[in-house]
């Protein structure tokens, strides 16, 4: 009898539940989310899909994406609706124009710290000698950083050949006069080679000095300290010289943070203001993302698997982005 009553009550309630779901979906509509082809972006895209679908009733789906084609398509065709992790400097002029023309909006910063670049040393070195957290300390202790091929030189591990960061790291190497301290740039050959050099140094607790960036699984696994140049950030010098292959007289500056933003079409922002409000609040710190990327690598997890892990294990993070009733819906869906 109890089972029969429960079944009858459930059947009676179905039209109300389905009607409510359809109403929410009709308000939010069909939402296409760009699933970019790197780990942090695919994680965020899957988190957005799950929350928009189950929390806001959107008919949400993922579509393949990448920075240039996604940005261009959003401006020219109005789709996809959301680019969850857009490194906007690489398309800044076009994106800004799209915003000015009322086609796009910047919803918020998907990485609250921005993309982070710098010259780094292992934390265990700084624990032994705090001066190694400064560029002057690095220069004074150059002999610690043994060159893999020439014992008379010290090694600075640069950005792989052909990458944009090879230009900026090379110009800063010159600006800091690291060659005068006995350093030579070591080309790691690839991103994997650069990551491998850090892993090898950590396994042996050896000295390491070089360029790296965040968020990455490497900085999630290995505790590294960003070296302070003592200069602060000179964004004008960085943009107009340090990032240019034609820079003849580079000056010292720390890397400015790269804005990493969530971009949506203006149409989506207008038709789904509640969902848009979520996107404006959804942000990861680099420490959070570094840790998640390390977990993804260790577990060979794709974006969907990583999304489940994040939502189940880090409720204290994502519930802060949502109203209580929406958070409850997402928890129920999990």
Automatic annotation (TrEMBL):
Keywords noted in UniProt: Signal
InterPro entries: ABC_Gly_betaine_transp_sub-bd
KW Signal (keyword) present: yes
Pfam family, one: OpuAC
Signal peptide: 1-25
All copies of domain ABC-type glycine betaine transport system substrate-binding, residue ranges: 30-311
Keyword Signal in annotation: yes
Protein name per the record: ABC transporter substrate-binding protein
Source organism of this protein record: Marinobacterium alkalitolerans
């Amino acid at each position: 009898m109890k089972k029969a009553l429960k079944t009858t009550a459930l059947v009676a309630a179905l039209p109300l539940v389905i009607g409510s779901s359809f109403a929410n979906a009709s308000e939010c509509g069909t939402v296409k989310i760009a699933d970019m082809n790197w780990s942090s972006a695919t994680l965020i895209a899957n988190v957005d899909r799950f929350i928009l679908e189950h929390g806001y009733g959107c008919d949400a789906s993922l579509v393949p994406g990448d920075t240039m084609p996604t940005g261009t398509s959003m401006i020219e065709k109005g789709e996809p609706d959301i680019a969850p992790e857009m490194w906007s400097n690489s398309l800044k002029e076009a994106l800004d124009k799209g915003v000015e023309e009322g086609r796009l909006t910047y919803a918020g910063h998907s990485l609250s710290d921005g993309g982070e670049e710098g010259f780094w040393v292992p934390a265990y070195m700084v624990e032994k000698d705090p001066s190694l957290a400064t560029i002057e300390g690095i220069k004074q202790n150059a002999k610690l950083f043994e060159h893999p091929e020439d014992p008379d030189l010290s090694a600075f591990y640069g950005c792989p050949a052909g990458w944009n960061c090879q230009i900026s790291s090379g110009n800063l190497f010159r600006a800091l006069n690291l060659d005068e301290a006995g350093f030579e740039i070591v080309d790691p050959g690839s991103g994997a080679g650069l990551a491998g050099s850090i892993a090898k140094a950590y396994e042996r607790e050896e000295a390491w000095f070089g360029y790296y960036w965040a968020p990455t699984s490497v900085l999630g696994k290995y505790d590294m300290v960003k070296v302070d140049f003592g200069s602060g950030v000179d964004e004008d010098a960085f943009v107009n010289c340090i990032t240019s292959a034609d820079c003849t007289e580079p000056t010292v500056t720390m890397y400015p943070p790269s804005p990493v933003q969530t971009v949506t079409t203006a149409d989506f922002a207008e038709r789904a203001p509640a969902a848009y409000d979520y996107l404006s609040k959804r942000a990861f710190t680099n420490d959070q993302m570094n840790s998640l990327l390390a977990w993804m690598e260790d577990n060979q997890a794709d974006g969907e698997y990583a999304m489940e892990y994040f939502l189940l294990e880090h409720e204290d993070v994502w519930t802060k982005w949502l109203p209580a009733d929406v958070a409850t819906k997402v928890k129920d869906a999990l």
